[in-house]
Amino acid sequence: MSARHHSALTPVGLFRRQFFAAPFASVMLALLVAAGAFLATALPRAVAAMHTAALAEHLADFPARELDLLSANRSALPDLGPSSGGTTLADDVDALWGGQEERLLAIGEQMPDELARVSDDPLQVVIAGPNSAKPDGAGPGSTDYVLYAGFDPRLDEHVELTAGAWPTALDAPPPPAEPEGEPGSLPMPEPPTAPAPSAKPLEFIAAEPVAREMHWEIGQERSIPLGTASQRVVLVGTFAAKDPGDGFWTHLPVPLEPSVAFTADGTLRITGLGFAHPNSWAALERSQLPTTLEMWFPVADDRIRADRSAELRGDLDEFTSVGYPVGSGEWDFYFSTVGVVGFSSGLGDALATAAAAAGASDTVLATVASGPIGVMVAVLVLGARVVFERRRQGLELAAARGASTGQLRGILAVEGAVIGVPAAVLGAVLGTLAVPADGGAAGLVIAALFALTPALLLVSSAPALSPLRRARADFATRGGGRVRWILEALVAIVAVAAVVLLLRRGLATSAGEVGVDPLLAAVPLLLALLTCLIVLRLYPLPLAAIVRAASRGRGLVAFLGSARALRDPSAGVVPVLTVVVGVSVAMFSAVLLGTVQTGVDRAADARVGADAAVAGVPFTLEQQEAFAAVPGVEAIAPVYATDSIQVGIDGRLRTTTLVVVDSEEMRAVQAGRSGATPLPEGLSETGAEAVPVVISKVIADSIEGAEEVELDRDAFEVLGVVDGRTAFWPRTSWVLMDRANADGFVGTFVPDRVLVRFEPGADAAAVTAELGEIAGEGATVTTPTMLRDELASTSVTQGLVVSLIGAIVLSSLLTALAIVLTLVVGRPARERLLPLLTTLGLRRRGERALVAWEVGPVVVVALVAGALLGVVLPFVVLQGIDLRAFTGADQQPGVVFDLRLIGAVLVGSVLVTGLAVLLASRVGGEASAARAMRKEEEG
């Protein structure tokens, strides 16, 4: 015996010969395992990357001041003094600001780890003002110039000089003399008086637009009030921001551009900011200037990761719940040095909102994915069965020659491991490389399960290897016995209970806290399984009628095919489940996609509130008149003010935003628009004791049950409550008032948002372009179409669209594969039957028709059932899914059936299924009659 022949008889050689004797089934099962492992590792990573991108988009909507860890102290003075160990400040600046910076750095070292990771070193700035700074000789009624003076110990890190020189420091005044008194007696403290202004002017620099708008030339002096006297100030240079997008600028009242507004008496007021030398503050700290000391730790939002947001929120709560000593806290009559301070941040609320949106998206993705997951498991079962049937004869021969069940299971386990483990490793590696993100260990665990699945499925088939235990499928009991009835009843009870619980619970809004809702995710698959069982129970009834009708005809194919489909059906639970789930998932995904797209359209229209909205900078009266005069513009409606206001609730104060509009102008612009904020007719009535307003639901909930409520200490009457945001203000907390009643609540009416209505048939692009030219640099013109594109391009919405399309494609492909595998499993029976029928005169076309009869009837019924389930699913599942994260709206969108999209998906499902049946009908039938006669008979 040659060495080569001997090696072929070894266990390894026999296994190799067995594998290559019918490799198609094993290769196909390996591809399924690789695909499953790829999806198991890639999808969690893609979801994590989507959440991180969505979180970044969400945080980008907030100014840095709302996210930073801020301590703002009105009228508190810095605790000036040098550091003990040195800082990175310049030596002369460290001599005054170093000690306070050192204490802030020490506070930063106490931050919890995750909060410290996303935070930068502290910053501090003193803002003195607002201070009237009119030119010398300005008369009554002239333009009012207002100056804020900033003192920033790290000024040179934020600005660069563009003209002139850097400011120099004022000399600090001498300390107050010790009070005189009798020896041994306590001196009587005297109220401090404002120090005499320095003879040297206070030097400062300003941004170029500020200096230009305030008509302040370099070297020109003006005066600002200083108690009962005045202090000369001089512009010595201009600057530009090193990084205009730096969050530092959001902490300043009017950072880089001046504010141009009109006061209530019609006076033009121009407000700007200038920076003095930080050490000049020592000369002015007791000057009785209105002062704000801000200290904050900047938050680097690009370091914030969605998967760590829960930990970060916990760190925020821990850090902001404690007070930290920054200075002595000493009082000297009207002056107090900063002492123990607390820090606050809106980052926690922003993270909570983002977590809720992420939880909603996870719930939707899990719900959509549950169907394809069930189909993939079913296809894996079919694939393992195909492999087993390919190995049955050889293993039965081994069993007949004395191989034990354990040995047979070992052979099947080895082949399953050879198929599953390398394929799963390859799929997991490709999934890991495809998406560079951290998806956690869950995906790898699922990939490991996929690796073991072929071995487990093949080993479970070992007891059926004895040819003595074969049974004729067409002699089986049609009802399936008591066990089948019990299992089907259990599935029905679980599915109905899940639906009832889901409908009773309603919309799930806590997914960000508790994760994916397993009940909600399982409902589509449970309903699909229940539908599958109903199909298997009911489809024999019409099929029996077809058999009776065909028996009266003269054709063989229809009668024999329908009779075999009724007595020996190839389609069991697995193929029917794949068809029902595949079609229903495709239909449900199409409905969900249409619902989200329609919701985005409606949200964009409601948030813009008009044909166009011009916003971003204060608009002068001339600009407003120019907007109205643009050809194609029918009407405009400015939002005259969005100022902070206090709502008194039984003695407690709540800060919100007062929105001021002219209700008549706004109704003219928003006439006929769905989603427009209701503006009651009584909103513009004046003279009543209580001012009429419309409030948001957030404010309505906060004042519910209160005995005494006030708006800036004035009574108000609520004419309407609106849930969510309006086109006038992007937050959910607001109070809306007509301009006719707003004089006592708002000092200036300078709109930074104007809504525009186009004339019918106007060229929207041309009108939008001209509005943008009038608005100037820094302003934006937004139309509903623009906002719709923006909302549709968000990471969450794009992720949902890709997931839905992927679910449709994957379900369709798996459905087709399941049909093919079902007929492949039935190939041995056909190889015994079809050659014999061929010798009796059956042609090739008839053979294919008989093959199609094996799955055709049940597939048609399953297609119809799946389509009907796909129509019902949205009304059930969307009762528990919060889609607002995808649409950008404040209200849950209603179910929308896009007939074109649904029709395309349904036609695609029918075509894919039909092609699968046609392809599978060509499998088998090549065996000769002689070979068929030699095959072992059933039973």
From TrEMBL:
Region Disordered: start-end pairs: 167-197
Chief location of this protein within or outside the cell: membrane
Pfam entry (one): FtsX
Entry keyword annotation includes Cell inner membrane: no
Keyword Cell membrane in record: yes
Comp. bias intervals (Pro residues): 186-195
InterPro entries from the UniProt entry: ABC3_permease_C (IPR003838), Macrolide_Exporter_MacB (IPR050250)
Its membrane topology: Multi-pass membrane protein
Compartment list: Cell membrane
Keywords: Cell membrane, Membrane, Transmembrane, Transmembrane helix
TM spans (from-to): 20-43, 333-358, 364-388, 408-435, 441-465, 485-503, 523-550, 571-593, 800-825, 850-881, 901-925
Residues covered by the ABC3 transporter permease C-terminal domain: 807-922
Protein name: FtsX-like permease family protein
